[in-house]
Amino acid sequence: MKNSIKTIILGKKIPLFLDSGKQLKNFKIAYQTYGKLNKNKNNVILICHALSGDQFTAGINPFTKKPGWWSKAIGPNLPIDTNRFFVICSNILGGCLGSTGPKELNPATKKFFNMSFPVITIRDMVKAQKMLIDELGIKQLLSVIGGSAGGFQALQWAATYPENVISAIPIATSFRHSAQNIAFHEVGRQAIMSDPDWCNGNYIDKKKTPKKGLSVARMLAHITYLSEEAFQRKFGRNLQNKLSVAYGFKTDFQVESYLKHQGQTFVNRFDANSYLYITRAMDYFDLPNQKKGSLKNIYKNTPVKFCVISFTSDWVYPTKYSKEIVDSLNAVGANVSFVEIQTDKGHDAFLLDEKEFNETVRGFLNSTANIMGVN
Amino acid sequence: MNRLDFEIIRNVIATPKDTSMILDVPMILDVGCENGKLLKFLNKRKKIDGRGLEISQKNVNICVKHGLSVVQGDADKDLIAYPSKSFDFVILSQTLQATHSPEKVLSQLVRISKYAIVSFPNFGSWLVRLKLLINGIMPQSKSLPHTWYTTPNIHLCTIKDFKKLCEKNSIKIEKSFYLNKYGKQINNPIGKIFNNFFSTSGLFVLKK
Description:
The complex is a heterodimer.
Chain A: E1 7-10, E2 16-17, E3 23-24, E4 27-34, E5 44-48, E6 74-75, E7 80-81, E8 86-90, E9 105-106, E10 111-112, H1 122-135, E11 141-147, H2 149-160, E12 165-171, H3 179-193, H4 211-225, H5 228-234, H6 254-269, H7 272-284, H8 295-299, E13 305-311, H9 319-331, E14 335-341, H10 355-371
Parallel strand pairs in A: 5-8, 5-11, 6-7, 11-12, 12-13, 13-14
Antiparallel strand pairs in A: 1-4, 2-3, 4-8, 9-10
Helix pairs in contact in A: 1-2, 3-4, 3-7, 4-6
Chain B: H1 6-14, E1 27-31, H2 37-45, E2 49-54, H3 57-65, E3 69-72, H4 75-78, E4 87-93, H5 102-112, E5 113-121, H6 126-135, H7 159-168, E6 172-179, H8 189-193, H9 195-198, E7 201-207
């Protein structure tokens, strides 16, 4: 199984300087590629995954044996067409599918990092991705695409490395975490940390897993990823394998069963400490704060072409935040498109097969590729 | 079908009065770009860096699908966000009459552009006058197809009105085009002199 993870060691000569002031040397980044790099190396698209995603964005995920999280959008003849583009997706720094994170061994101490892993930020993740593409000999990305926390990374790429990015597609995302975003994350983290099996973060050494805590965190988060309408449409008040309520506290409703299933499948594939670190990185994300509190300062004179996409029923990162990004980009004369997709599927709509969304991504990418003379 | 004024807009952009001011690939903003047909039309003949502002999200989505850089927005509210002189040309084709505050929109157009191209239906046309005179009801025509109670055109004006407004705001009219109901430019001298009477719509290149 380990063989299906492609990893690269980075920071061998120059370490990764983290926002926290700490450094990471000899860290691993796991990544996947799809399609072929062309001769001019100008057909590269970087996909940034969200909180619970991984590098297996297209095709079949070798661990879950299920289609990759964006397999409906990436592949031959799909909106992100691997016949034309070379797609890279890496497991984010702090992730748990091969990249260095809390569940990996600290090369310096030969012990598991656990909570001694440094607190990281979205910008740290992006810096690690930049080191990866440098190592792969790629100078310029035709596009950086990501939804949710992946959208943070896309925005951060355009902010930190504007000369290396032709275009960015931030999807269902925002330029900073709101109080409500932080609040939901904090409940999730508290659920994990109050699980006795969390063992102050040292559960690997104690051969335990804080399954209950992580599962509750996922259940809660999952509610925010859908919408009231979507829940109602999918489940209503339908009962789970019974004709009437049981006057007890076992699963009565389908929606309960669904959430429990979401929680259980998540603990099998995700690391609880990774969840803590990545949600923290998201909470710390505050792009305007990186330049005197103004998003306009961030993108002044930017050469990057943007396509901002939001979804009407997304209440994690509602359209108004995308609009604010768009207004700031317009104010500095940047090349920006903005599309809001009508859907009742909530925040997770970007992962689903929304026709309008797919066509937007396809149209934007192909026109950008045509301008850049990508064959 | 293309709007009647497309050809003229294309010619204006292809032959600017002062070429030194205009970039090789001119930056153009089409305000009220609908489904992007003008931008696409312009792009076909000359390389442009075209952007669009469009009020209907549905139209915006169509534009972006076709690879155009378009954002959802409102001419009355959102032009203010663009920096001064950030476009070589800003186009407002057959939309001025539908804005809430034509005077403010006009001022914004000349602020953010080197040249603003504005066209609108002429309510002073003899056809309109005749219809109103004979029928006594709000005139409807090809360029003004709506009934008075469904029309988005809340600020109709005549060419004379428009010129007065430009004067009031010290906006210079660089070029004027007077069009008949077939969208053809009126070239005979009488028609040109009595343009407010003979033309169905007017197109002006403005500067401030």
